[in-house]
Specification:
The protein has 14 helices and no strands. The protein has helices spanning about 1-15, 25-55, 65-85, 90-115, 125-140, 155-180, 185-215, 220-225, 230-235, 245-260, 265-270, 280-300, 315, 325-355.
Length: about 350
């Protein structure tokens, strides 16, 4: 499972970011740098964040679980990279690689350890966090779409072809990404893989159908490259739940249709003067947010559902049994926490990136 998650980061995101014909090598090369640096930097950073909350340092045991969580942390940085891809300096990118994992680990501690909300596939703590962190960086850097040369934002036949290879790699490995941390429970891991498989197949079919209907029989490549994957994002938080197969298909289909129409959000952000190079809000931001909302309502509908998340230790840690309404509120609070920390952290990182010594 670690190899699958690492392949998603290195190959999937790497090829997905070759869509711009002017930044093909930058997309692949800088993606490779983020993976190498991120996988390594996440290890000591976990010990630092743990010491902040616990008050003392502990040795970090390096095992497959830690290596896999490093992939999740790096994936958030790669998602943010998609928002400002093509117009930041290497030193600014290094600053993002240094700071974003720190803010992400703080948010993860708040969501998982303090609020006791599990997020197996990272709908909130990886995808939504990374997307809004990247948008906040763009706002702080004050990078306006109208200031960017239009020819530098165009695609070509070969660059779109390369991006489609990245989408297919991500599509194939996404079930493994969602279930990578559940190797100790094969029954639960199997449920995660099945739910993710059904959802991402549904989003793929729905994205092609929606794009064809919206564009009079033609496919819009930016929609196909992104919306086909939205099912894996939107099912991420709910994938450990015991839900009927049709529910997974419905959620994945909603993700595919919503992400296709989410292209309007991309245009809306451009009109507001906010740049989103790889349309990460289409694939990660909005589907991740709706994934948290769907998980909250799933808990509200069935009092047993949240017991199937991979980390239900909060029942013992809090020494109380939460009601359906209680857990619904905590999941909503987790959504708000992730949004707030992502936006605040992105603004801090972006303003720091504007400093002369960095830029």
């Amino acid at each position: 499972m670690y190899m699958d998650a690492a392949a998603m980061c290195c190959l999937g995101f790497g090829f997905l970011y070759v869509f711009s014909k002017y930044y093909v090598w930058g997309g692949v090369g800088l993606n490779f740098f983020i993976c190498g640096f991120g996988f390594l930097w996440a290890l000591p950073l976990k010990a630092i964040v743990h010491a902040i909350f616990e008050g003392e340092f502990h040795k970090l045991q390096i095992n497959m679980t830690e290596l896999t969580t490093n992939c999740h942390i790096t994936a958030a940085v790669l998602i943010s990279f998609g928002a400002f891809y093509g117009f930041t300096s290497p030193s600014q990118l290094l600053l993002v690689c240094l700071l974003e994992p720190f803010f992400m680990l703080i948010n993860e501690h708040v969501v998982v350890k303090l609020l006791h909300v599990a997020d197996a596939g990272g709908s909130l703590i990886v995808h939504m966090f990374g997307a809004f962190f990247g948008i906040a960086i763009n706002i702080a850097l004050n990078i306006k779409p109208k200031k960017l040369p239009e020819e530098h934002r165009t695609t070509s036949y070969m660059s779109d072809f390369g991006a489609m290879i990245g989408s297919i790699v991500l599509w194939v490995f996404w079930p493994s990404f969602n279930g990578a941390l559940l190797y100790n429970d094969q029954t639960l891991q199997g449920r995660v893989l099945l739910n993710t498989y059904l959802a991402i197949c549904a989003s793929c079919a729905a994205a092609f159908a929606t794009s064809s209907l919206a564009h009079r029989g033609r496919f819009e490549m930016i929609e196909i490259q992104n919306a086909t994957l939205a099912g894996g994002v939107i099912i991420g938080m709910i994938c450990p739940f015991q839900i009927d197969p049709w529910v997974s298909v419905l959620i994945g289909g909603i993700g595919g249709v919503g992400s296709s129409f989410g292209y309007a959000i991309y245009i809306f952000l451009e009109r507001l003067g906010i740049t989103d190079s790889a349309a990460v809000q289409m694939l990660h931001g909005l589907p991740g947010l709706f994934g948290g909302i769907f998980a909250a309502f799933a808990v509200l509908a069935n009092n047993d559902n949240y017991l199937y998340s991979y980390n239900n230790g909060w029942l013992l840690e809090t020494d109380s049994n939460r009601s359906r309404g209680d857990q619904f509120g905590y999941i909503v609070l987790a959504c708000c926490s992730s949004l707030a920390i992502a936006i605040a952290g992105g603004l801090i990182t972006g303003f720091a990136g504007k400093a002369a010594v960095v830029s």
